[in-house]
Amino acid sequence: MKHTKIVTALAATTLFSSLSSVPVNAQEANNEVDAAIEQVVVTGSRIRSANAESVSPITTVDAEEFLSRGVIRTEDLVNALPQVFAAQGSSASNEATGTAQVDLRGLSADRTLVLVNGRRLPYGSPISVPSDLNQIPSSLIKSVEVLTGGASAVYGSDAIAGVVNFKLIDDFEGMKFTTTLTTTQHNNDNENLQTLLDSNDFDKPSSSVWDGYGQEYSMVMGTNFEDDRGNITVYANYREVEPILQSERDFSACALAADGDRGEQFACGGSGYSYPANLSNTSGINGVPTGFRVNNGEFTEGSSVFNYAPFNYYQRPDQRYSVGALAHMEVNDHFAPYLEMSYMDDRSTAQIAPGTVSGGIFGSTGGVNCDNPLMSAQQADFLCGAAGLSTNGNYDASGNYLGPEAVAEGVLIRRRNVEGGPRQDEIRHESFRIVIGTEGHLAGPFEYDLFASYANVSYRSRFEGDANRNRLGNALNAVIDQRDGSSTFGQPVCAINADADPTNDALDCSPLDYFGPNGASPEATAYVLESKGITGDTGLKNIVFSVNADLDEWGIKSPWADYGVGVAGGVEYRENTLEYIPDEIYRTAVTPELPISGDVSVKEVFAELNIPLVNDKPMMQSMGVEAAYRYSDYSSDFETNTYKLGLNWSPIENLRFRGSFQRAVRAPNVVELFSSQQRFEVDLTQNVDGSFDPCSGETPFATFEQCARTGVTAAEYGNIQDNPAGQFNTLVGGSEELKPETANTYSFGLVFNPEFLSGLTVSIDYFDIEVEDLVGSVNPNLAMGNCLATGSDYFCDLIKRGQGGSLYLFDDGYFQRFNINTGSLETKGFDLATDYAFEVGDMGDVKVNFVGTYLDEFTSTPLPDSTSSEVYDCKGLYAGLCGRPRPEWRHKMLMSWATPYDLSLSLTWRYVSAVDIAQTSSQQALVGSFAQVNKTLGARNYFDLSAGYVLNDQASIRLGINNILDRDPPLTTSSAIEDGGNGNTYPQFYDAVGRTIFMGFTYQI
After folding, report:
1. Better pLDDT: 156 or 650
2. What is the separation, in whole angstroms, between the first and last Cα of the chain?
3. pLDDT score, position 156
4. What does the buried/exposed string (b/e) look like for 405-440 if buried means 16 or more CB atoms within 10 Å of the residue's CB?
5. For residue 15, what pLDDT band results from cuts at 50, 70 and 90?
6. For position 9, what pLDDT does the model report?
7. How far apart are CA 279 and CA 296, in angstroms?
């Protein structure tokens, strides 16, 4: 320990050497205030007070719970809280951002503000701005405080749903090494699903699987110096997690679909981009079916589906390094500088099924040359001969290729590039953050805090596995080489290499055989594959000067109160910058991704007031009011005002009532304002006939009159192919016309500490949060439903039918989803929290912590002028317009027992109530058809058990199992999953991978 202090003191002395000449009066001041009352600051306020009590409910998770649950990812612990809904995290693979986010109240992670020691984190990534929890050093977390409800008056924009404040240890002494090892184990014993896999001839996972191995190592070193007036704490962390494939769980080894008259049983479904290939006749060639497929070297009518599930990750692999330091020193009463520095390098790989190939010799518009030698005689006759198209090619006298005599135009080849392997996105985030500040006594009762922070997040993405559209067209356009003297004479070659023009030759082009039984050659596969990348950076500059005071020193207080009025105020400048740079492949795509570069800055003035009105009077043990106000002037040419009013009243010592109203805002971020138009996917709700596009199939679900409103022609009606995976194109993009969101939050509650049961604290709080001018887009399901039903120009104009009437086969078919200020979102409910601590005789101490949330309402108003029939409440529902599950009740109960034998035990009970699919609702906006297997996601009880043992004064060990009963998650069909689902369930909302077993060791000197 002596050596440790010498090392860290040397670093601290170097850091603060320039301060040594400042007069030191701290010890003298301490001698004069021996009886001083400690003042504290609670999350949600800047006022230091000796009687600080929050008017808003705050849930606290301490460091002990991190250890007892063995988590090595911070989001795993935060997501267990009933106020938190799953957002981007380790289980996201399709369109993964590589970040870990927190979403309070299910209002989206964009509306949750994340703080470290009360100060902002930067944007998490140029592609997704919510803060990344990977930046937070888990080894230094002292506690996590979750304040739900608006807090913009205190902290500024983004705190609409609330604040998550990570408090770090900044006074560590000694040296501590910690290691945690984790693995998952699952018994694959679902007989029905195993039979289903057998019937489809799919591989089954082992009966018992062990995977997802994780390891985390951390070191913390710290020392006090200058007579304990200063401290420096440094840390280093390393984390590595291995992947989990969906193929290793029987409930996710195939993409589930519904079967039976009412969809009462599961079947294995998949994607219409199949292997071998499906083909679509989108131009209505006579004599050729609308849909046909490759079958052992021949064409047959119909289509097949591809089971994409086994390739997808349930848990992404991840590797993270992080280092940093915290330091502070009280030079004198007026000058106490502090410093925070951190660096993180996080690398993760997202993997999904092999890429989809969609096109023909004319690129994305399709087309098959009828003289293609890779087609068998049966295939040439099926496609071209039956339509009266010639199968001959044209050559000049020297044998140079001139072109085919006929092309089956509009025929689209739809295939999985299985030979190219799964698609992978190598994602890397590097972040650097520094905070430099000082605090101290200003004058009279006033204290000050001045800090400046700078943060930068660097993003790098390398995506492998997609097919290049231009090279795909070249490779599909195969012909016989008839050039005299050619080394490939008489063999199939790419047409660009067989003509008379040498300028268009591509020597690495090899004919792509998607028609034969043997698949594509390695050379052809390598030619069409592309590697593309995105780089970007996001930054935060934040300067805050604040003062606070207890005016009791000046005698400013209520005549009925013993405590003085508390005040705080200050100014803030904040600038967020973002740069997003796709490479040339992205920029030159059919739907290009364009660079984004922008910044948003804001200048703010804020103030707070805390007035104790009465204390120690009959029925007035204490009563106080508090208020806050913030004015913000944005560079985006708008101004906002936010404010807070709150009341605390304790009629007796053991009972306190609290309530508040808060006006919050969220300014549009850089991505929402400036992002270019890009193509993404969206899931449509399944219709009663099993279709997803209601205008698809030979006998469409919707009438021709209805479908015509969506852009379907008479020739296309009855000939549009559906996507069996339910996924369709959308075109998204930002808008500089966005205005800020506003939110009104009401909360009322009570806190009870009964005298008759010492050690018990019970709180219950009601919350009501309504967000208006919601930044978002029109849900395609809403657009389709309203267009079919009413013919509304607004909704119908959002549906852009492409070639052949398709909404997914071609890039020109999509739903338009540009950012706009939509309608409103309101959530209401109750939070219940209890803490109970008691002794068990000579057998130690027991603590029980219970946190539960009842959801009373989750209502969406899609647009400002929506009628009452278009408004819907998603309480207790999932899927469709409701997206992720919104259970009515969730809770977490932690029971811990510290025995007198250096042994501690913990048992956690987590519960999630059942949810029904949205279409079961009687609400007009939601009611509809559904498969019976999707009707309900059943309730889940999860139990976690852990034990810790102190070996000696320096060492301790921990063992535990989370989800000890290995409960499977509730399942639904892949087409019903939206908004964060993966692998036939919602894996960050439910435990999807089975048991998590962990072991930890700590050594401290």
Report:
1. 650
2. 6
3. 87
4. ebbbbbbbbbbbbbbbbbbbbbbbbbbbbbbebbbb
5. very low
6. 40
7. 14
